[in-house]
Design brief:
This protein is mainly alpha-helical. The protein contains 7 helices and 2 strands; from the N terminus they run H-H-H-H-H-H-H-E-E. The protein has one domain. InterPro entries: TRM3/TARBP1.
Length: 206
């Protein structure tokens, strides 16, 4: 499992994220399909930690930058900032150890609409995983990992949605078109979510 996670994390930095950059301009349907396939691999390999480290913070950071946020909020679960990590381009990646820094320093490469879309597809995949496990077999470790991932992501999506609704028409459009529907779907599955952030427990409910 550890080897699978390492391989998937490397794939994320070297292949998936650069592919998002290439496809985001015109190939939205193909990008959605590839993201769904990526989520299938995450579910199959139980690699939820890869999403938490290598994918979600990058796209949340991209959305945050678009509303002039330089770092995550005090009540956000995922931490990110404007601190530069590594200067470079997607064309040449020499040192694998710098893959993460490269992508984290290049969050502005992803458009607002693409970032919101990918995050919503990721959340959809997590919800489908939980539904499949609870319908056909007792909740095990895999289901618990997915539920914990949903809790943290839904919390940050709600926080970001609130900020976006107070911003530009494009931000409000993305909040309404991408985040609110998936947030609503999550609350259909569970009336409330509890989360711990830096030792403090919080609860969000419909």
């Amino acid at each position: 499992m550890g080897a699978d996670c390492d391989a998937l994390q490397s794939f994320t930095y070297r292949c998936f994220l650069p592919l998002v950059v290439v496809l985001q301009a015109s190939q939205h349907d193909l990008l959605n399909q590839i993201t769904e396939w990526f989520m299938d691999v995450v579910v199959e390999t139980h690699a939820w930690g890869v999403l938490e480290v290598a994918l979600v913070p990058i796209f949340l950071r991209s959305v945050g930058f678009s509303i002039c946020m330089l770092h995550s909020g005090d009540l956000d679960f995922y931490e990110w900032s404007s601190k530069p990590f590594f200067q470079g381009s997607y064309d040449v990646i020499i040192d694998p150890l710098k893959d993460k820094e490269l992508l984290l320093s290049s969050s502005s490469t992803f458009t607002l609409r693409t970032s919101c879309n990918v995050l919503s597809v990721v959340m959809e995949g997590a919800l489908q995983c939980v539904q499949a496990h609870t319908l056909f077999k007792p909740a095990g470790e895999e289901c618990c990992l997915a539920i914990n991932f949903i809790k943290t992501l839904i919390w940050d999506l709600c926080n970001m949605t609130e900020r976006m609704l107070l911003h530009s028409p494009d931000h409000r459009s993305c909040a309404v078109g991408f985040f609110l529907p998936i947030v609503h779907k999550a609350f259909l599955a569970s009336r409330k979510f509890e989360i711990s952030i830096r030792g403090w427990k919080h609860e969000i409910s419909r």
